[in-house]
Structures are given as C-alpha cells and as structure tokens.
UniProtKB/TrEMBL annotation:
Signal sequence range: none
Family indicated by similarity: Belongs to the hexokinase family.
Protein name as catalogued: Phosphotransferase
Alphabetically ordered keywords of this record: ATP-binding, Glycolysis, Kinase, Nucleotide-binding, Transferase
One GO term (biological process): canonical glycolysis
Biological or metabolic pathway of the protein: Carbohydrate degradation; glycolysis; D-glyceraldehyde 3-phosphate and glycerone phosphate from D-glucose: step 1/4
Cross-referenced PANTHER family: GLUCOKINASE-1-RELATED, HEXOKINASE
GO cellular component: cytosol; mitochondrion
EC numbers, comma separated: 2.7.1.-
C-alpha cells in the first residue's frame, strides 16, 4: 500500500480484508449448502432443519376473504386484518408495537397474554361491530358449548422461530433465536399457547394456521407477483435470516409415509422452511473472524445460528462495534484522535449490542464529500466528537466490508436453492420474494447478492438475469391470511 494513505485508513483496510468472501468461497458454500439441504430432507436433527410446512400449493392471486394475522418474529409484534380481494390485491389494517425487551426473556404465559391483549385491542379498535357483541355473549355464556360453533375470525399466526410443524395449525417450538430466551415454551405447541391466551379473554378468534415469516413471504409474493410466475423462494434478510422454498414432495424422504392422506396431494410439492440461519453451525465453510468468535460467546445461544450471526441485522451492528473498537485500539491508527476527538466513556460504542444495524445503512448511504452524515451520527448517537473525514471514511470501509460479506453470504442459500430447483434450465424467469430491513434499506444489498450469484459458474450472468427479486411488503401478514384461508378450505373440503 503506498505510504500516502493515512495510517487509520490503512489499518481499517487491513481489518476490512478479514471480511473478504471471494468467489471461490461462495462456490464452496453453495456446494456445502446443497449437501446440508439433502441431509435435512432425509433425516430429523440435521443442521439445516428443512421443516415441512404442510403448505402444498402457493396462491395464484384469486383468493378472497377477511382474515386476521398475528406476526411475532423479532423486533415488533403486529396484529392485522387482511381483506383479500381475489385480484392479487389486498387491504391491510394493522397495529404494530415494539416487543418490550423484558418479554423476550420471561415466561411463555407472559408473552402470549401480551399478544392476546394486542389482539383484543385491535379488534376493539378496528372491528368493533363483531367484537362487542361476540365478547359480551361469550362473557355472559355459562359454558363454551353455547358459542363454540358460532362465526369467529380465522387467524394466521406468523411465528418466526424454528418450529417443528406437525399440522397446519400445530407445531412445537424447537429453539428460540434473535435474542429471545423463554425456556418453558420450548417443546410446546405455540398455537395452543396462543389459543389458550385468546380463550382466556373470550375473544372470537380461532388460530387456524401457523406459518414461518419466510413461508408467509413466499405465499404473499406468489399472490401479488407480476406475471403469474409461481414464486420459488421467500426469504427474510432482517433482524434474522431464513428462507422457505417449494420442494418436490418425493425429495422429502424424511416424511416416512408419503401415501399418508395428509400428503397425498395432487401438486406433488410442499413448502419447506429451511431454517438456514443455522446453516453450517459446525463451521465447515463459513468465514470466521475474531469478531465473529467474540460475538458468538456473548449471545444467548453460542454455537447456534452461525450463518444468521454473520448475515442478519441483529448481529451486524455488533460485528461493526467490535471492529471499530479494534481499530480504535490500534496505536498506529489513531482513530478519532486526529481532530482532537475522543470517545466518551458512556458511548454506546462501549456497550454490548450498542450499534443498531440502521447505522450501517446510514454509513453506507452517506455520499456527501466530507461524510458529514456519518460524523453527525457519531456525535449524536455515540458521543464521539470531532471525527475527521478520514475517520468517517475508515468507519465506512469497515461497514462496507461487513455489509458486503453479509450480502455475498446471502447468495449462498439463494444460489443453492436456485440450482437445486432446476428452474434456471426450464424457465425464463425465476421469482423470489424477499423482506426485511437489510434487503430493504441497506444500499445495494441486492446488488451484492446478484454479483455473488454471477460468481457461481452454474448460474453465471445468464442465470442471474433470469432471477426476479421483489420485496414482499407485509409478507408475513398477508401470507398468514393466505395460510388461514388454505386451512379453512381444507377443513371444509
Ligand atoms: C428464525 C426463522 C425466521 C428468521 C427470520 C430466524 O432467527 O429462526 O424462523 O424465519 O429468523 O425472521
């Protein structure tokens, strides 16, 4: 490196190189992902869970009706009602609240009472005509028998954690992710937990479908996608990361009896929730820096969700915080010192999880000549005064490296699923629905994914061009409604 480069920038570039994820590694990752996909389809307990969703067809846009949905998955909890118009459009009404941190580490009853309370408030506010009469009747009735057959809202429950699904509205929690830790819920049926809390409030609501947010995203994208192309994959790149795709039923060899009437469906397909956040927990192929190792130790689930911990929004801020501190401690770099600046002792930079991923998006997006936006945020949000333009540029070098590695890593499961589906050989367009703060707000996240897809020789430029990626906004709400509708249809057929 020529000596004219300021030492702080040279040091930042050295750290940034640790996050390189070259084409050869992308290819190695894809091969391993395909192996782990097969393993997960053939046996229980594999690293990649490959969970059958019991959803055997994706919508075509003609579905109609009014449904409720609850979305519990990470940062927020949402209750919505969705009117499907039957022409690929819908109207959605929602209430959204941030999940209080104390409810992420508590007892299951506390969490589900909280959600049922949200449903009650939502119905009262937006569907009062149904709500008052029903609730009053229920509260005055002597026994449940008196109202058990009356009209109720069908609710699709988007629960974005790994669940061992055993029916369209039944599934037991395998493990918590994304900072949640409520041990008494593990192994329990999460639909039952929600239904009990709903019944305790006498609400006219039946939990009729359970879906992962990726399954919801796939369903929603398929409902709204342009050109009536059947969507192959629904993926989330947000607080957590995961994907659900359409698999041939005959490939899901761990389902022992494919002639069981529950699977003997004409489509010959089933949506699989991969739970790719736990891809390569054994670290056969995942890139690992000191920062990744140190972060893992601080989580509630060390050694688990190792792919997610390198890719998703919950973790990128912490990887960045650790790399900024490492740069700060490098005596040759003199980060934040050139303009007489300093880090205040109470700065969030010294706090575990102190950097939110939105900071990475802000940094990557700052193209002002003197990187003023970054300097302002460092001052306001981190109590760092007098960061020079070179300091800001050094922070940007780190952010870019971490964000780009996350996006290139994201291409691994996407590429593997594209190749395994065989669709690039038979279709002109292969549709993918995505959602989540990273893919929505991190500048060029999708562009970096595409670059890495082109690095996979079996996909190349020609294959990458066929890939149509679209944001499935409100995917988990609409998808849950669509799943409740599928459940209703199955019940009445
Ligand atoms: C969960 C998945 C979920 C993903 C995205 C992961 O932590 O295990 O079930 O789909 O986050 O929300």
């Amino acid at each position: 490196m020529p000596s004219s480069i300021p030492p702080v920038l040279a040091a930042a570039t050295r750290i940034a190189r640790e996050f390189d994820y070259p084409a050869s590694e992308v290819r190695r990752g894809v091969k391993e992902f395909i192996n782990q996909m097969h393993e997960g389809l053939s046996k229980e307990g594999a690293t990649l869970n490959q969970i059958p969703s019991y959803i055997t067809a994706v919508p075509d846009g003609s579905e109609k009706g009014l449904y409720l949905a609850v979305d519990l998955g990470g940062t927020n909890s949402r209750v919505c009602s969705i009117e499907l118009h039957g022409d690929s459009t819908f109207a959605l009404t929602q209430n959204k609240v941030a999940i209080p941190r104390e409810l992420m580490v508590c007892t299951s009853s506390k969490l589900f009472i909280f959600i049922a309370g949200q449903i009650e408030a939502f119905l009262e506010q937006h569907h009062n005509e149904h709500f008052e009469a029903h609730v009053l009747k229920r509260r005055l009735a002597g026994t449940r028998e008196e109202y058990k057959d009356e009209e109720v809202f069908d609710l699709g429950f988007t629960f974005s954690f790994p669940v061992n699904q055993v029916g369209i509205n039944r599934g037991t929690l395998i493990r918590w992710t994304k900072g949640f830790s409520i041990p008494d819920a593990v192994g329990k049926d999460v639909c039952e937990l929600l239904q009990t809390a709903i019944d305790d409030l006498d609400l006219p609501v039946r939990v009729s479908a359970l879906v992962n947010d990726t399954v919801g995203t796939l369903m929603a994208r398929s409902y709204t996608a342009p050109g009536k192309t059947e969507t192959l994959l629904g993926a989330i790149f947000g607080t957590g990361t995961n994907g659900a795709y359409v698999e041939k039923l005959s490939n899901i060899t761990k389902i022992a009896d494919l002639t069981d009437t529950r699977y003997a469906i004409p489509t010959g397909k089933m949506v699989i929730n991969t739970e790719w956040g736990s891809f390569d927990n054994h670290l056969n192929v995942l890139p690992t820096t000191t920062f990744d190792r140190e972060l893992d130790v601080e989580t509630v689930n060390p050694g688990i969700q190792m792919f997610e911990k390198r890719v998703s929004g919950m973790f990128l801020g912490e990887i960045l915080r650790r790399s900024i501190l490492s740069l700060f401690c490098d005596p040759t770099a003199k980060l934040f010192q050139s303009a007489g600046g300093s880090i205040a002792p109470d700065s969030a930079l010294y706090k575990l999880w102190g950097i939110d991923t939105s900071f990475l998006s802000l940094v990557e997006a700052d193209v002002t000549p003197d990187l003023r936006v970054i300097a302002d945020s460092l001052r306001k949000d981190f109590n760092i005064d007098g960061a020079s333009a070179i300091d800001c540029q050094s922070v940007k070098v780190l952010v870019h490296a971490i964000g780009k590695r996350a996006a290139r890593l994201s291409a691994v499961p996407v590429g593997a699923i594209l190749l395994e589906s065989g669709k690039l050989e038979t279709e002109d367009v292969v549709d993918i629905g995505v959602d989540g703060s990273l893919v929505e707000y991190y500048p060029n996240f999708q562009g970096y994914i595409r670059e890495a897809l082109r690095d996979i020789p079996e996909i190349g430029e020609a294959g990458e061009k066929k890939v149509q990626i679209g944001i499935a906004k409100d995917g988990s709400g609409v998808g849950a409604a669509l799943s409740a509708l599928v459940a209703r249809k199955e019940e009445s057929s």
